[in-house]
Design a protein that fits this description.
9% helix, two-stranded antiparallel ribbon, binds iron/sulfur cluster
Length: 115
């Protein structure tokens, strides 16, 4: 995956999404759309275009489904990446001042054990 210049990043948990489209209508950057694929519940889930998210969080606060949307702020400043052992996708390593690194795959959202 190429390094994103977007200030934010959003991941949709497709199995939690009910396809209500509220996040799509609410996104001021118009970077969300309804996928033409089905999830296992028979809904078309929301999806991210891949670029242009600002990390504003409006979609997260609009979504009625807990756990359907994860928003990452300061995405463009996170440069350290690794490959996820679960999905093979790229995840970013979060460095926070007073907490251990939070290692969550930013592709599949599964926890990744530290080195
Ligand atoms: S965080 Fe903001 S810009 Fe990014 S997808 Fe959600 S509403 Fe759109
Ligand atoms: S608001 Fe939530 S449930 Fe509705 S389409 Fe967006 S992610 Fe799916």
């Amino acid at each position: 995956m190429a390094q994103s210049k977007s200030r934010g990043h959003v991941v949709i948990n497709t199995e939690e999404c009910k396809g209500c489209e509220l996040c799509i209508e609410a996104c001021p950057s118009d970077v969300l759309f309804l996928s033409d694929k089905f999830n296992t519940h028979g809904y078309h889930p929301s999806a991210y275009k891949g670029e242009g998210c600002t990390g504003c969080g409006i979609c997260f606060y609009t979504c009625p489904e807990p756990g359907a949307i994860t928003v990452y702020k300061r995405w463009d400043l996170m440069t350290e990446t690794a490959e996820c052992p679960h999905c093979g996708g790229e995840y970013k390593v979060f460095h926070e001042d007073e907490t251990p690194d939070v290692l969550i795959c930013t592709n599949c959202l599964k926890a990744v054990n530290g080195e």
